[in-house]
Every structure is written in C-alpha cells, then in structure tokens.
Amino acid sequence: MSDSKNNPPIINSNQQANKSSNISYFKLKFEDIIIIKQNFVIVEMGKLARKVALVGAGMSTFGRHFPAKRNPDLWIDAWLDAVKKTDKGIEPKDVDACYVGNFSSDLFNHQGHLGPQMANLVGLTPKPAARFEGACASSGIALRQAILAIASGIHDVIAVCGCECMTEQPTVNVTDALATASDNIFEYPAGATFPGLYGTLASAHFKKYGTTPEDLMRIGIKNHNNGAENPFAQMQETIKHMMESKMAKYEKQGRGVPEWHDEFDFLKSSSNPIIAYPLRLFDCSLITDGAACLFLAAEDVAKNYTEEPIWIAGTGQGSAALSLHDRETLTSFIATKEASRQAYEMAGVGPQDIQVCEIHDCFTIAELVALEDLGFYEPGKAAEAIANGETALDGSLPINTSGGLKSKGHPVGATGAAQAVEIFKQMRGIAERNRQVKFNVNTAMTHNLGGSGGTCVVTIYQKEV
To answer: Which helix (H) or strand (E) holds 312?
Structure first.
C-alpha cells in the first residue's frame, strides 16, 4: 500500500492495515472503502449493514403551550400520535430504546436528564434511554444515532423523541439560552444573537450574488402558504391573510388604512420591522413548544408494524467552526455540504433524485443557502428558482410542505424529528388539508441545521431501497 501524496492508501474495511505504516485503520459497521492518510480522512459511504425503516411518526401541535403543557405532556401527545399513525400498532414492549433530542431543557425548564424521564412516561424504563444535543439539530442527531444503532444490530426498534418547551421563559431569556449555541469566546460576549449572525450571512450572500430582501420575502410567503394547511403548525395563516386582517382592523378602528397592494408592500412596512439587517420579523422562525416521535425498525421486524415502511436510504452528518470568523466563506455551510455528500453517497442518489425536502429555515436566508449547498441549484441561482415557483407546493421541487420552521414553528430540540414526520406523511400520502403533493414521492430528504451551521444532519428516505 502506497502512502505517497499522489496515491493515498486505499483500505477496505475487511482488510487489516499495515501496522508499520502511518495509516490509521477504523473498522466500521458499514461496507465502506476508506481512504486514510495521516490525519486526513475521506469516507466513501456504503449501505447500512441492516436496512432501517421509519414505521410510524407523529407529533404534538406546535405553539405556545406553557403553562398548560411542558415537555412531558408534549412528548406524550407526540407518542400517541405516532402510535396512531403506525398501521399495525406498536407497544412499549416492542421498543428497545429511547433516543431523545433536546437542546436546552436545562435553561428553558431547569430540567436535565431527559432520557429516562421521557422513557418512563411511555413505559420504556428500564430500557436504554439517552439525550442527544446539537443545538437545533438535536433530534436530527438522535434520529441518525438511532439509525446507526439499529443498523449495527444493537437494537431492533427505537423510539426517537424530539422535544422543547421554550415559552416557559420570556423572550429575552430564550434569546440568551439560544445564544449558548454560538461561540462563547468571540460571539456571545460581543452581543451576537442568532438573528445577528444570520443577518451577517444574508448580507454576505446579498453582496456576492446580488440577492435581495424580496428573494427572502418569497420564502416566507411560500412557507406561510404551506403552514396554513398544516393543523399542527403554530402559525396557520398566510401572510396575505395577516395583511388583510390588519387592514380590516385599522378600518374598523377608524384609523388610516395602509395602502398595501400585495404581501411585499406589507413585508416592507413597519408591520414587519428590521430585527437584524437585512432580516425582518417575518424572516425569523418562532419561539415554540412542541414534540415529535419517530418509530424506527430493522428490516427483520418492520413488517410487524406496517406493510408500507419508509426506508432510510442515506444519512450524513457534518460540522463546522462554531464562530463565523473562523470560516472560509459566509455564503455556504460546509457542514451541510459534508452531511449531504455522505447521505447522497450512501443512498446512491443525487440532488436530481430528491422530490420533496424539509429544509431548516430557522431564517429565510438559511433555506436559500441550503438549496444551493444541497446541490439543488448552483451558488447564487436559488433565488431565481424560488421566484419561478419551483420550490412551491405545486412546483418541481416542493420545499417545506409543512410550513417549515417559519410557519410550523421551531421548538429547537423537536425540529429534526418533526421534519421526518412531514416526510413520512408526504411519502405515505396522508398530509392533512391541501398540502399533499400531487405526485408519488419515492425519494425525499430532511436537512437539520444546528446553530449558525456548526452542525448539520441530512437524511434521505425512500419507499424502496
């Protein structure tokens, strides 16, 4: 095996590395071929050792639930909804472990150690239970770890919980808690908040590609149109309806009625104030309480729960420097590119094969950048596609049919799992109201981003693998 610069060593996972060389060897649970030299690793992803299926998925309603409900109540709501959507039913005795995705119940609710708490509520103790944290990607990580655990043979069935109760705290405390996912050395002490950080990213994209505020407004309008059709969403209202309601209210009060001719006029007005330039109020996701539940099963047992399993075709996870100043570019997320590379290779598909995608639109600019990072559009070209309606519900690539974080809501620890719930519904043809896409979905994706892009999890789903 050569370790020259031009011919890096290629090691099959079934081979043993030459112990005398400077090559590190890792025995993985995938059928991988890995190229390893010194500290640089490229992994060519293979298939999972065992096929893993999503056999049931459900969620609580998203919204402002405190004090009537907290994480335990929201999790039970999600569990019951997922059981209801598992065709042949599922019971606690069938589940081997509980993986919980939660960002910061410690700060929001003064409650840590959520793994056993959530497991006990649904009758899973004394089985294994653990909490996973990766900022807004927490339940995306829990989902990925559950996939890998089942593929490895450790477990056959895992319940994934995503939960967050944020409204127990006032907005200033929520903002402060969320800021702990930024860099505590350079960003947080300087007063950086996530609207400010994403405003910086938006400004960079504007400068490099000529992106405009109207391009971001179209994303918000589209996502609210979808969210209005989602009975589980926090804001089930289109921006046009909000505009018309405000105009009617002013008229009833005898006040001057604003001359808003369309949603863009409304979104450029004082009713949509600047939060962190160039981002306005309707560019930002919501403070939300909610939970989601996913049931994953190995191929051997999946048919015990449904005749129509949704298979996990690919999974990937990437990372990046926590602070923006340590990154090479502000117009792209390397964590998204890496996570999607892994997922595409494992699934054996490309961006052109994805039919529906739930993208992490914590801010409207995040959706636009993700469209480019995931390979759906060339850098700087996503805005044009959005303007042409390609990402709309009836477009060629429907994005955020759930309403996204912008309209559905963003209980940060629950978001990744809730994205999978929407994909489950679209692929099974059971999306509520009028948001079911009009074609058969065979291949779909979820994109779950943490913080300002420090973590990303991408998952690809197929009806047949």
So the answer is: strand 310-319
What's the token pair of residue 134? 């990766």
User: What are the angstrom distances between the C-alpha of 431 and each of 191, 224, 265, 315?
Assistant: 41, 16, 32, 24
Residue 160 phi/psi, 5-degree rounding, is: -100, 125
Q: Does domain 52-169+286-462 have CATH number 3.40.47.10?
A: yes
- DSSP 8-state assignment for residue 84: H
What pLDDT score was predicted for residue 43? 52
Q: Where do we find the tokens 């007063």?
A: 191
Strand blocks (E) in 60-156: 97-101, 129-132
Domain ranges of the chain: 10-44, 52-169+286-462
Sign of CA dihedral 194, 199, 200, 206: positive
pTM: 0.91
Dump the DSSP string for 53-88: EEEEEEEPPPB--TTT--HHHHHHHHHHHHHHTSTT
Round to whole Å and give the CA distance between 378 and 452.
21
Cβ pair 459, 372 in contact under 8 A? no
Compute the distance between CA of residue 166 and CA of residue 426 in angstroms, rounded to an integer.
28
Chain segment 394-423, per-residue pLDDT in tens: 999 999 999 999 999 999 999 999 999 999
d(CA 124, CA 127): 6
Q: Give per-residue pLDDT as tens, 127-186.
A: 999 999 999 999 999 999 999 999 999 999 999 999 999 999 999 999 999 999 999 999
Sequence-separated (6 or more) residues with CB below 8 Å from residue 175: 193
Amino acid at 425: K
Q: Whole-angstrom Cα distance, residue 287 to residue 177?
A: 12
Catalytic sites, residue numbers: 136, 410
The answer to whether residue 21 scores a pLDDT higher than 50 is no
Are 46 and 30 contacting, i.e. CB atoms less than 8 angstroms apart? yes
Q: How many CA atoms lie within 13 A of 123 on its CB side?
A: 8
Contact 365, 198 (CB under 8 A): yes
Going by the DSSP 8-state scheme, the letter that residue 188 receives in this structure is G
> b/e per residue, 335-351, with b = 16+ CB within 10 A?
bbbbbbbbbbbbbebee
Q: Which residue has the higher pLDDT, 2 or 445?
A: 445
Q: How confident is the model over 70-95, as pLDDT tens digits?
A: 999 999 999 999 999 999 999 999 99
Helices assigned H by DSSP within 303-433: 334-347, 364-373, 382-387, 404-407, 415-428
